[in-house]
């Protein structure tokens, strides 16, 4: 009996043991932020036990738990989440950001860092900030989202260039755009347009593949990029797969676009009245009337202009109803060994200007594999093809918006349906029908990477990146197009730029005694970029049906060149924290560039910063009001090398003289040409109150640019016009403020807002010999903002005779300016009358979520800048030309005693058309940049379909604009030449597109 009991107890023990083990299982998974960024150091605890673990640097973890237990997953700055184990072998979690976002993961150069311990100034945007906004380019989606960051599209063309300024303009003669870094690879960002209108090279990147964008603003953050960080750094991180359950996500949307603003022009009756009056005032009643009738007979194409048979609205013909179609599909997943992300996207955009369209195809694959516990490798690869139907630049007569100058009494089309060729200026409809200009960009970006962990606290990373930008441009102008004197003209060009970059660096990271955290990065990087360009022009085609260069009877021009530059860099960075509250950081980068003189091509760029988390101190740690408070300060130096590849060398070029080859000098040498340097100081505070329901930051900075790369004029006897030298000093000084609020936080209802505002004062401190540099309507002068407007001061109209008046602005004996007036603009003096750079910029975003509904919007604003409407000399010229006029001309001076600001109409006499403040306006505006309304269908309604999430939404872009600017758009600038936009010139520049889009996104 005892023996049987013994056996029974043994069997019972074995069964209980087996049953117990059967209830336990190993769970694996990943912990990420909302944007898909891995959270390193996240805590996973089996609820009610002391069993716990932390995620590694890729957000991965494994833990043993029983089927009926629950995992509690938490990370500082994110909402804690509880997940039942049940039958799950893989549990992947995306933690929602806490209201303050104080501890989100920030991507910095060659690593990541928690924002809590960050001593730099970095603005972070996730995919949720830029998703489902109808725009083909990702940069325009950043407007109003980050303090001190101004994003401006040149005009309303689909491919228009993007100007992005971080804390003002830091250079006079070198590049002013930030460095864009994609998954650690500096991107080619060179405008390769050949029709004088800049285009955006980063249109090739699809927003759907972006996980996050980190904008590095102060020198402590940018100095690790050394010679390229002077204008700030935009770090773009693409999406990655997660181990566990695979998922498929898709988004499809279609939108409709129109111009955000139209102007009002004179109709045919008003135009006739103004023109006749103008000609009579110039030539007298009899002669003026004869000239008027002759003009009307000539350009009315045989229609009855006296009875108003034709009243052409040329503006409506220049614009068109646009559309935008977006579709993207992505697949992601993996296991504890391999993760993957695959995506494809299509964008088709028909612009708001006739003849302007874009089509883009993109694909991406990101793969990572753990070969062992020590070695991880992978690759990112993307391909895109972008095809753009382009129109002429803003200064060309055949560009559509210059059609507003045409007379409304001229019909657009002839009775046979062909565009009317007998108009006072070129009829762009002939160009639209008989010519084309097409640009195709093919781009490949790739990165192969490997990481070997020697020890738990020591690893080595090696990366190899590749960026290929290959562009072809083809145009044909048929024999019936305006200004075409031959039997057709064709043009073809191709440019290929390849960039290779290899980075190798060690990372040491260790905690000592639970109070000392130390991380150090040391490495090197080499970047080689090569460019090849060639073009050919031919004329005399047998028929307009043959439009390629091979059909040209005569080759009239050809061009070709090759170029190359490289950088060799060494860098080290160390971060240290004591007791999680005292923070230090320092970095040094040594850069060498082939662009500078042989003896001065290496530069050293250092930075240091410190922070103190006061809220961790005993006197604040128990505060119910102060949740987080950190003081930080930084200093650093970064550089600017964005000049020609051979700017320091004496160059020679081949020439032809009497059909004989020769060589002539084309550029003088400057062997001492070196880096443009930017020193920046930053003092800031990060704060959170009431359990971080109110959070934000306040920063003050001083940004000084010295040794400016500047094209200094040379005497004509030298044989050269300019030479590039390091001369000058410029300063940007400003304040930035960010406030995030969690206004309502209830089950099923949340409301969050974020406001940012920044003030920046730009001032030129030193110039060569203190001499002004004047270019058109702009001036670079000591004590003024760069490219300030330098024009005559308009004094209005004489009520006695309708003369336009100008202030003399000559100097009085006491040093003041004389405010006497003259009707002769040649007697008046120009003054600095405004700046194209805004003093204040800001944004306001609000997001509400209520029981499946979501609603968000962003306002953006700028104040303090001016814009010069150079087209006003023709558009608002009181009948000085045959151009149609804006409706403000209806209040022109007509008889003695009239009080008005529009002079008397006098054809061809320039009464008030001198370049002056008459055409200079403030661009202050507030724009409702985007609105998004969505509804997520309850999950229980989707279970039978196998869909995890389904959301339908309505989005709007550039919905409303509040401004006093009389032109098309306060943000639009001329694209005729690379400097026009930066100089604040508006010349027949198209407004932004207002777009409405309806879409659906889902995943399963």
From TrEMBL:
<dbReference type="Pfam" id="PF13715">
    <property type="entry name" value="CarbopepD_reg_2"/>
</dbReference>
<dbReference type="InterPro" id="IPR000531">
    <property type="entry name" value="Beta-barrel_TonB"/>
</dbReference>
<keyword id="KW-0998">Cell outer membrane</keyword>
<feature type="domain" description="TonB-dependent receptor plug">
    <location>
        <begin position="115"/>
        <end position="233"/>
    </location>
</feature>
<dbReference type="InterPro" id="IPR037066">
    <property type="entry name" value="Plug_dom_sf"/>
</dbReference>
<dbReference type="GO" id="GO:0009279">
    <property type="term" value="C:cell outer membrane"/>
</dbReference>
<comment type="similarity">
    <text>Belongs to the TonB-dependent receptor family.</text>
</comment>
<dbReference type="InterPro" id="IPR023996">
    <property type="entry name" value="TonB-dep_OMP_SusC/RagA"/>
</dbReference>
<dbReference type="InterPro" id="IPR036942">
    <property type="entry name" value="Beta-barrel_TonB_sf"/>
</dbReference>
<dbReference type="InterPro" id="IPR012910">
    <property type="entry name" value="Plug_dom"/>
</dbReference>
<keyword id="KW-0472">Membrane</keyword>
<protein>
    <submittedName>
        <fullName>TonB-linked outer membrane protein, SusC/RagA family</fullName>
    </submittedName>
</protein>
<keyword id="KW-1134">Transmembrane beta strand</keyword>
<dbReference type="Pfam" id="PF00593">
    <property type="entry name" value="TonB_dep_Rec_b-barrel"/>
</dbReference>
<dbReference type="InterPro" id="IPR023997">
    <property type="entry name" value="TonB-dep_OMP_SusC/RagA_CS"/>
</dbReference>
<keyword id="KW-0812">Transmembrane</keyword>
<dbReference type="InterPro" id="IPR008969">
    <property type="entry name" value="CarboxyPept-like_regulatory"/>
</dbReference>
<feature type="domain" description="TonB-dependent receptor-like beta-barrel">
    <location>
        <begin position="450"/>
        <end position="950"/>
    </location>
</feature>
<keyword id="KW-0798">TonB box</keyword>
<dbReference type="Pfam" id="PF07715">
    <property type="entry name" value="Plug"/>
</dbReference>
<dbReference type="InterPro" id="IPR039426">
    <property type="entry name" value="TonB-dep_rcpt-like"/>
</dbReference>
<keyword id="KW-0813">Transport</keyword>
